[in-house]
Amino acid sequence: MLAVAILAAGKGTRMKSKLPKVLHPLGSKSLVERAIESCKIVKPHRTLVIIGYEGDKIENALNHLENVEFVQQTEQLGTGHAIMQLLPHLKDFTGDLLVLNGDVPLLRPETVEELVNTHQKNKNATTLLTANLKNPQGYGRVFCDGNNLVTQIVEDRDCNSAQKQNHRINAGVYCFNWQCLKEALPQLTTNNDQQEYYLTEVVDFLNPVMALDVHDHSEISGINDRCQLAVAYDVLQARVKEGWMKAGVTMIDPDSITIDETVQLGIDVTIEPQTHIRGNTIIGANCKIGPGCLIENSIIEDNTTVLYSVISDSKISANTRIGPYAHLRGGVELGENCRVGNFVEIKKSSIGNKTNIAHLSYIGDATLGNQVNIGAGTITANYDGVKKHPTIIGDRTKTGSNSVFVAPVTIGEDVTVGAGSVITHDVPNDSLAIARGKQKNIEGWKKP
Ligand code: UD1
Ligand code: CA
């Protein structure tokens, strides 16, 4: 059996935030959620999150995850003290306990798996992840004998100058034999600079304790402040983008592009500079997105191009051209072979195939048929100050420039609407609708 414990009771003072540190988002997920997810691969039977500072907030933020238990550490007396809180909860548990700091979000699942495998194969009392860092400042130093067995861990602040020369650090990720750990915990002392119970002191009472080096140091970086958070975001982005480039996506200037891990991209997609793709977005083959786009929670089908535009919560069918400067701000379904052009805003509307809305329009709460042509500056006036109302426009209808549809209103098929019309009544199929003041010319008129 395997249980996971995540240390998440601390405040994270260096974040200078009202939000507990482990709830800070890194891309689409919080730090603590990422720590939990990195353990999924070893299929833990139980996952215990140790909470204290703003524990309610952490519980709330994680309540969508199944099988997570919360353990209170009301006073934060150190990482060893945090693990002591597990004793009543794991009284009858037998097996191994994987322990992770809640502020280590970039661990690769494969690394966690390797740690557990190494631990079990060697029948260790404890196995822990270590790394040789150029700058080991702030980390606990791990001392080993010739056989890679750990003899001691000394926190940075407790190191003498000779010990500081050791650059092998404790990553804060451990696999313990729970039976052995259970017996060692009551022996912990507070004989250290911070007068806390250090989890790392258990190595004095356990045997054998093995160190496993991590080669990619980015995996084990702990997040203590917002500068480290920003560096971690870069690492995460580099992984995601590299993955997609290897899978057949072209990126122009990848440093200026961000892509959430939740996004799916098709083959031969090209992403141009300054483009950000977020949430549950799916982009089909051969699409060209960017430069300058923000796309959130949307589906974009094959061969579509989007240029300098913002799209959220919408579905765009194949072979469509969007932008520059279009804003599809939610609930938009766009058919195939459409064109949505400059300075067009669309919300909550369904639009058929081969329909064009090319310039300077607002389309809201509308249903447009196939092959509709929306003239420049056409507006659906959907809001009467109290309620939103629908506009329906039939197939092949053409609206003149600067026409306004005062909703609720239904325009039939094959209708032509004269430029500058304010349409307040339904229009039947096959008709011409004009609703504007007649032009009057006063000849020979002289300025007063
Ligand atoms: C710890 C390790 C250090 C290691 C480093 C790796 C100890 C004594 N030191 O140091 O060897 O190199 O991590 O990043 O373990 N927490 C609690 N309850 C507490 C105290 C802390 O839940 O009473 C949680 C914090 O919320 C945090 C984690 O434990 O998520 C680590 O605590 P932190 O104070 O950041 O430890 P470090 O000083 O970084
Ligand atoms: Ca830390």
Any low-confidence stretches, pLDDT <50, length ≥5?
A: none
What is the name of the CATH superfamily of the largest domain? Answer: Spore Coat Polysaccharide Biosynthesis Protein SpsA, Chain A
Based on the coordinates given, report the CATH architecture of the largest domain. Answer: Alpha-Beta Complex
**Largest beta sheet: strand ordering:** 12-15-18-21-24-27-30-33-36-39-41
Task: For the record, give the distance between the C-alpha atoms at the N and C termini, rounded to a whole number.
Answer: 96 Å
The amount of beta strand, in percent, is 25-35%
What's the level 1 CATH class of the largest domain? Alpha Beta
Structural class: alpha/beta
Largest sheet: 11 strands, parallel
Choose one word for the global shape. Answer: elongated
How many domain modules? 2
Question: What's the pLDDT, averaged over the residues?
Answer: 97
Query: What share of the residues lie within helices?
Result: 10-25%
Q: How many beta-strand segments?
A: 41
Might you state the CATH topology name of the largest domain? Answer: Spore Coat Polysaccharide Biosynthesis Protein SpsA, Chain A
Radius of gyration (CA) equals: 31 Å
